[in-house]
Amino acid sequence: MMMVSNLSLSLLLLLPLAGSAFELSLHLTTKGAEELDSTFWAIATPSSDRYAKFLEVEELAAMIGSDQSCIDAASAFLKQSGGENLVVSPLKDSITATFLHGHSLLLSDAGHPKSTPDCVKFTVRKDHYHEGVYPRPRASASASAPYTISKIKNAYGMPTDLTAINPATSVMTWGPGTFGYSVAELEHLKLTQAPKINLDKVVFDNENHGEPGGDNFGEGQLDVNMLSAFALNATVIVSNTNTSSSTEESTGFGAALLDFLTELAGRETVPHVLSMSLGSLSAASCDLLCDAAIEEGYSQKDCDDYLAKQRQVCMFLTQDQTDKISMALQVLGTRGVTVLAASGDGGSHFSFQAFESDGGIGDVLNEASCANSIPVFPTASPYVLSIGGEMWRNGNSDHPITWSYLGSSGSGGGFSIQFDQPEHQKDVVAEYLKKDGMPPADSYNAGSRAYPDMAAVGVSGTSQSCPISAGMFAMIIDQRLNAGLPGLGFVAPRLYEVATKFPGEAFQDIVGGDSSTTCDTGFPATDGWDANTGFGRPIWDGWAKHFGEDN
């Protein structure tokens, strides 16, 4: 008899019984992890003879796709459970089926879970419904004075009217739940700040267009506004692949993200740039916090229940899931996608800000958060470019410092708990940690992935910094395409090489501020790379020279 793994069972139990049609995707065990890793780094390393030689879907399917025996077993299981219209993903790493009205998937009539093949690692369900009341967005969707579009571009030396020429240049943003944007608000930005925005080049890639008033709708608006304004005339693709309400604030988000990334990697055409502003504390961070709560006498359930009520705090199910998501990001890099992720708005200790002081578990979690570097995800993955936030002292763009808001929120930065430090980071991180003002050495793992890698204006949070940077990279890629060059793919090794060999040419250093927020310690923004603003903010001419050309 086939058994249900604990991880798969946990995911299945999260799925509600539905009274309407829905889809279910079974994510399968893959192979070739070592070959993928070596190929990924060869493609991303400028000195390699495989640099920027991106892979096609068929090559990746042969490398990492699941064994045929697993595909057969999963297909048979779906059919036996009443699934219809089975589709095997192009990468052969998942199978999706449709279930019609009245079916209860993977649960017996008595309510007991049925078995799934052992090779099924994750299960993601798509229900097209909304429920509950959504909070208002936390950030304005438009830049405000003195941070207008033109002033930000001027600060970075980017021509305000620079437009994409190549019809293939594309940048994508993604989010689930209510994620979308208002055409009217984008038109307002065009009229007031960025007249060259091409409204016709902003497109959805499916029928899900978001829901005004939802929390993720505000995120989507900010992403679209910044991408459209900083990647003028490039195609801006807006993607919402799962409108289930469970994806808005809870662990349904992690499942939706995994499903999206694996599906995107299998598309015949992928975007040149993917901007990801949404995220939460990593699964490893939530494990650390709950371990601290358990030491103080709380149960695992107490901690899980409390964190589940917090806004976008713990939206990933397990470290196994975040590991799988990180691998999916690695696959996208081999396809040639440059993936950027916001570094978070809670400094090095929170998702956004401290938990409410309640004389109970909230205080325990605050104490544990301040005592450790608490990373967010997916920005702490070693396969994305992490983008921190800057602001201008007294509104003067000549004096950048790390972004913070009323002392309670600020640019995210620190060290991963789960992922090792990639080779291209080791020298600059070691130099940084020799400096004064670091948090206690036992509060972080100095050998883990450090972030962010760079910064941009984040007065509306790093959800603004990320799409600004993504839009600028799209314009660099447009330059490359026009010169007959490929895109950049995973750009971090090249970025670190440029920043260290040519200091001050491609990035303006940011000194001032730290990631402490409401805690006593944080990572300071210092000379050179730091775990608060990375190498600093863009210098357009240096980007055009060092990233727009291959010498």
UniProtKB/TrEMBL annotation:
EC number: 3.4.21.62
Domain Peptidase S53 span(s) in chain numbering: 143-550
Xref: Pfam families: Pro-kuma_activ
Superkingdom to which the source organism belongs: Eukaryota
Keyword Endoplasmic reticulum: no
Residues that, per the record, bind Ca(2+): 509-510, 528, 530
Cofactor remark from the record: Binds 1 Ca(2+) ion per subunit.
Active site: 219, 223, 463
UniProt KW keywords: Calcium, Hydrolase, Metal-binding, Protease, Serine protease, Signal, Zymogen
Cofactor: Ca(2+)
Gene3D superfamilies per record: Peptidase S8/S53 domain
GO molecular-function term, one example from the UniProt record: serine-type endopeptidase activity
InterPro entries for this protein: Peptidase_S8/S53_dom_sf, Peptidase_S8_Ser-AS, S53_propep, Sedolisin_dom, Tripeptidyl-peptidase_I
Signal sequence coordinates: 1-21
Catalysed reaction equations from the record: Hydrolysis of proteins with broad specificity for peptide bonds, and a preference for a large uncharged residue in P1. Hydrolyzes peptide amides
Record's keyword annotation contains Metal-binding: yes
A GO biological process held by the record: proteolysis
Alphabetized PANTHER family for the sequence: PROTEASE S8 TRIPEPTIDYL PEPTIDASE I CLN2, TRIPEPTIDYL-PEPTIDASE 1
Protein name per the record: subtilisin
Provenance organism: Triparma columacea
